[in-house]
C-alpha cells in the first residue's frame, strides 16, 4: 500500500513527497526558450493531480507512456487554489512493484448489496416482457460481472469501480419515488430504461489501469453499443412486442436529452423525459459530491471552478458552520516554478455554460 495518496495533499502542502502514480495523461510542451517540459495528469484511487516537470526532462521523455506507473519525488503546492505536483525525479515502475488496488478509485458501498437492491427493484416489474428482458441481462455472467465493476463515466460522475451500479441503483430509487407522484408514468418502462441507459459503458470504457475509452467506445459510443446489446438479448425473449422495443430504443438514444450533449433524439414521451432529467440530476449531484470531497481540505466554502458544471460550487455545510478566526482569504499567487512564462492563466468564462455529462 502507498504511503501517500493524492487525497492527502492538504496535509503535505509545501512538502516533498515520494510516491507512485498511474499516468492518466502525458503531454510534452515547449517552454518559452523552446526547451521541452512535461505536463502530466497523475492518478491514484483517491483522485487525480496535475504535475509538471521542468528540469532534466530530456532524460525521461521516452522512458514512459500513458497508463504506465511511475515512482515520483516532488513538491506538493497550490496554484490557482488547486494542488499540483512539481516533479523533481521519476522512474517507471515494474509490474512486480504495483498493487493495482492503489490506483483505481472504488465505491465504498457493498457491491453485493447494491446488486441485490437492483435485483429487488427488477423483481417488482409487472410487464412480463420487460421483466424477462432485464433479467436476461442480469443472468448473463459476463454482463453481470462487468455491470458490477464498470465506472459510469471516465471523469465526470461516478468515475470509480462500481460507479455504474451505484448510479443505476440511485436512479432506480429516484424513479420509484417519482412514479408515486406521477401515476401516469409507466413504471415498468421507466425501470427498463434506467437499467439499460448506460449498460453500453461496460464496453465503451476500459478500467484496467486508468479510466479511458476502448476503440469501440471511441468510434461508436455507449448508445450504439446498447442498441446492439438490446437486439442480441431480445432474441432470447420470444414474442417481444415491436412497440415496446421501439420505446426502449428511444429511451436509450434520448437519455442525454439535448442534441448538443450527443442525444440523437430529444425525449418524446413521459418516461423518456423523466429518465433524462433523473439521470442528469443523479449525475450532477454526484459530480458536486465528488468535487466537495476532492477539496475537503480547503478552508473556503467555495470550490475551484468545476468544468463539467460550468461554475464554482458553494459547500453549504462549510458555509453554515461556525466561523474560525482567521486572516482574510488571499488567493495564491503563481510561483515561478509553477507557471512557465509561455503559459497564460485560464480565463474565467463570463457566461459559463453546461458541458455534457459524459
From TrEMBL:
Database matches in InterPro entries: HD/PDEase_dom (IPR003607), HD_domain (IPR006674), NA-bd_OB-fold (IPR012340), NA-bd_OB_tRNA (IPR004365), YhaM_exoribonuc/phosphodiest (IPR050798)
CDD domains, per database record: HDc, YhaM_OBF_like
SMART domains: HDc (SM00471)
Statement: the UniProt record of this protein carries the keyword Hydrolase: yes
GO biological process, one term: rRNA 3'-end processing
Pfam families named among the record's database cross-references: HD (PF01966), tRNA_anti-codon (PF01336)
Domain HD/PDEase: 160-293
Keywords annotated in UniProt: Hydrolase
Region spans: Disordered: 324-358
Molecular function terms, GO-annotated: hydrolase activity; nucleic acid binding
Origin: domain of life: Bacteria
Protein name as annotated: Metal dependent phosphohydrolase
Organism listed in the record: Candidatus Sulfotelmatobacter kueseliae
Origin organism lineage: Bacteria, Pseudomonadati, Acidobacteriota, Terriglobia, Terriglobales
Amino acid at each position: 500500500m502507498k504511503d501517500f495518496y493524492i487525497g492527502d495533499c492538504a496535509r503535505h502542502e509545501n512538502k516533498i513527497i515520494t510516491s507512485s502514480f498511474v499516468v492518466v495523461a502525458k503531454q510534452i510542451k515547449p517552454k518559452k526558450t523552446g526547451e521541452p517540459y512535461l505536463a502530466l495528469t497523475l492518478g491514484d484511487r483517491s483522485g487525480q493531480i496535475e504535475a509538471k516537470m521542468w528540469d532534466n526532462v530530456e532524460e525521461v521523455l521516452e522512458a514512459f507512456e500513458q497508463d504506465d506507473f511511475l515512482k515520483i519525488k516532488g513538491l506538493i503546492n497550490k496554484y490557482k487554489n488547486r494542488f499540483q505536483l512539481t516533479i523533481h525525479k521519476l522512474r517507471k515502475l515494474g509490474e512486480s512493484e504495483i498493487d493495482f488496488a492503489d490506483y483505481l478509485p472504488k465505491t465504498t458501498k457493498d457491491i453485493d448489496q447494491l446488486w441485490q437492491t437492483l435485483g429487488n427493484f427488477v423483481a417488482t416489474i409487472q410487464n412480463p416482457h420487460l421483466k424477462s428482458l432485464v433479467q436476461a441481462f442480469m443472468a448473463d455472467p459476463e454482463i453481470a460481472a462487468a455491470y458490477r465493476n464498470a465506472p459510469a463515466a471516465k471523469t465526470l460522475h461516478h468515475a470509480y469501480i462500481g460507479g455504474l451500479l451505484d448510479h443505476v441503483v440511485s436512479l432506480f430509487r429516484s424513479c420509484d419515488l417519482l412514479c408515486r407522484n406521477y401515476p401516469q408514468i409507466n413504471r415498468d418502462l421507466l425501470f427498463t430504461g434506467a437499467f439499460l441507459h448506460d449498460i453500453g459503458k461496460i464496453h465503451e470504457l476500459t478500467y484496467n489501469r486508468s479510466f479511458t475509452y476502448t476503440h469501440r467506445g471511441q468510434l461508436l459510443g455507449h448508445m450504439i453499443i446498447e442498441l446492439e446489446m438490446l437486439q442480441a438479448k431480445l432474441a432470447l425473449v420470444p414474442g417481444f412486442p415491436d412497440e415496446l422495443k421501439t420505446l426502449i430504443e428511444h429511451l436509450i438514444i434520448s437519455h442525454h436529452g439535448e442534441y448538443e450533449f450527443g442525444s440523437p433524439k430529444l425525449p418524446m414521451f413521459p418516461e423518456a423525459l423523466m429518465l433524462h432529467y433523473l439521470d442528469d440530476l443523479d449525475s450532477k449531484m454526484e459530480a458536486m459530491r465528488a468535487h466537495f470531497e476532492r477539496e475537503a481540505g480547503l478552508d473556503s466554502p467555495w470550490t475551484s471552478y468545476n468544468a463539467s458544471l460550468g461554475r464554482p460550487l458553494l459547500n453549504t455545510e462549510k458555509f453554515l458552520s461556525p466561523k474560525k478566526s482567521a486572516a482574510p482569504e488571499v488567493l495564491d499567487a503563481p510561483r515561478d516554478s509553477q507557471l512557465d512564462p509561455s503559459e497564460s492563466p485560464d480565463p474565467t468564462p463570463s457566461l459559463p455554460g453546461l458541458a455534457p455529462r459524459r
